[in-house]
Write a structure and sequence with these properties.
The protein is α/β, with parallel strands linked by helices. The chain is built from four helices and eleven strands; from the N terminus they run βββββαββαββαβαβ. The longest helix is centred in the last third of the chain and has 13 residues, at 173-185. The chain is globular and about 50 Å long. The structure holds flavin-adenine dinucleotide.
């Protein structure tokens, strides 16, 4: 994960909801224009400065930008954007992978009620302070990213509080959809679960020569 701080006059005085993001306008290796979304982890609205935490996962446009951005570089973006709204609840559950850690940490900062956080990350070095009541780190180790294999048993075994819960599932699309089924089976209402695909594992037939499938 690499933090990149972006300063922009148009963001001076901006008001954002937790976990809103910006869509960066980047170019890929072939010079083609592409857009990639990154959560505003923190906004210092007085000076129009925002922190973006970028997962470094290889030589792809977003990841490469995070690895190579230097002070003074310019970047174009659209935003703030994003539909996530906090739901009224007695407690909140946030689950995701490292791409959603900035969003999950921002939600944890914002909610007043008790919150439970479960985040899958490669290893303990990727842990960050998260202001939740209960934080569980799931270390992936050599396991492939973007599967629900490790999060499913962890979420299934959680001791959920009583009262009305709200859940936010943010990360690889199919994994998050699989987790929603588990939470519904545990009694959390469909409407109280917000699911957002942040990225998609590439299907084998799309691994080379074609643009990756984008989350809807
Ligand atoms: C609302 C929203 C907010 C987001 N916020 C953040 C954020 O704060 N920080 C962040 O890092 N990402 C965030 N993401 C996810 C990020 O936009 C995607 O991971 C994006 O695909 C990265 O672009 P890329 O050019 O690096 O890779 P792409 O060109 O999109 O994908 C190339 C290959 O990498 C794989 N891939 C993509 N992302 C990952 C990953 N995270 N881990 C492993 N493999 C991956 C794909 O399956 C594909 O095979 C957010 C997405 C959304 C929709």
């Amino acid at each position: 994960m690499q933090r990149v701080t972006v300063r922009c006059e148009a963001m001076v005085g901006a008001q954002i909801r937790p976990a809103q993001d910006v869509e960066l306008h980047l170019v890929d290796d072939s010079g083609r224009r592409v857009k990639r979304r990154y959560t505003i982890r923190d906004l210092r609205a007085g000076i129009g400065e925002m922190d973006l935490d970028v997962v470094l996962h290889g030589d792809w446009p977003g990841s490469t930008w995070g690895r190579t951005a230097r002070p003074g570089d310019e970047v174009r973006f659209q935003g703030p954007r994003g539909k996530l709204e906090l739901r009224p609840a007695d407690w909140h559950l946030m689950v995701g992978d490292e791409s959603a850690l900035p969003a999950i940490a921002a939600i944890a900062d914002a909610v007043a009620e008790p919150s439970i956080v479960v985040v899958e990350i490669p290893d303990p070095q990727e842990q960050q302070p998260v202001a939740a009541t209960d934080v569980r780190w799931v270390h992936r180790g050599s396991h492939a990213p973007g599967t629900p294999d490790l999060l499913l048993p962890t979420v299934s075994a959680l001791d959920l509080p009583g009262g009305k819960g709200a859940a936010y599932l943010l990360g690889e699309t199919r994994s998050m959809v699989a987790l929603r089924a588990v939470l519904e089976a545990r009694g959390i209402a469909h409407e109280a679960i917000f699911v957002k695909g942040y990225w998609n594992v590439a299907r084998p037939d799309r691994v080379s020569g074609r643009a990756p499938e984008r989350p809807g």
